[in-house]
């Protein structure tokens, strides 16, 4: 067994016998609080403060999903579009996996190799699902937002999962093969999860930050004329949030890589926000509006009803209500929630039947019997 004396007179012990030595407070170097919070346990329970602080918000969100499950199930069954189902499944899986990781991490002994390995693998698994969700949200919005079919969604999920798997596998390999010494706990003789090391974290954070920044500024560039960009403002606030978070992670990991331990506080805060806030953010940004409408199936089935009758020579659609501007399910996720936005719809020129169809079934009283769901007035109102 060997020891290393540090500047304050304490010693760091190394070697195979380190586990058999009882370290006293006088022999342990005073840790930065932002590093201490990552591994400190509650008494002798093996329950780390860090895992518990992440577990509580995830459990609360999972309970929220469970409480609203019946309502969500009915809404999902009311629409024929698979995009909402895909988003909902991703959100639920993220919440479940995050809770499982926290519970398992609090029960295994990280000081044992098997326990430390299990903890790191679980971190990588959670990151895989979160990154898959991140990429799916972007791809659906920028490239496949209007390809609302089972085939297109399966392809998107397959591609994003493959890319996320490559990223997560690289991160996991670096964690196991080349653990970051900045995250080594001397007096416990194990390494806490370092997200693939500071260099890997810095480079990947820069890449993600640039991607989200570009997405945020796209509406102010000439690309808006070539791409069918989402018009929903919350989508761009979502992109800005992730851009700022990744820039902060890049700054923090870069400081740690150059020996500045104060960078730990920056990465701790952003890591906590990401693993507790990201999944609820996806839900409230892209799904909450859908689950709150009265009868989405009527709204989302209107386009197919128009397609069925548009071949009739006697049918005349209002100018502002062309087939290209009608709302689809994917439109509702990425476009403005307001159905009467002045840039897309003029309520005075929309067929009254369409306006009534946006309401709940109970509101269909007072409509003339000779007007059915499958017909449209032959002349604009």
Automatic annotation (TrEMBL):
- Using the record, list the residue span of the signal peptide; answer none if the entry has no such feature: none
Annotated transmembrane regions: 49-70, 82-115, 121-144, 156-178, 198-223, 235-257, 272-293
InterPro entries with a match to the protein in the record: TPRA1/CAND2/CAND8 (IPR018781)
Membrane topology of this protein: Multi-pass membrane protein
Arranged from A to Z, the UniProt key words for this protein are:
Membrane, Transmembrane, Transmembrane helix
Q: Where in the cell is it found?
A: Membrane
**Per its record, how is this protein called by name?**
Transmembrane protein adipocyte-associated 1 homolog
Source organism of this protein record: Limulus polyphemus (Atlantic horseshoe crab)
- The protein's gene is named LOC106471753
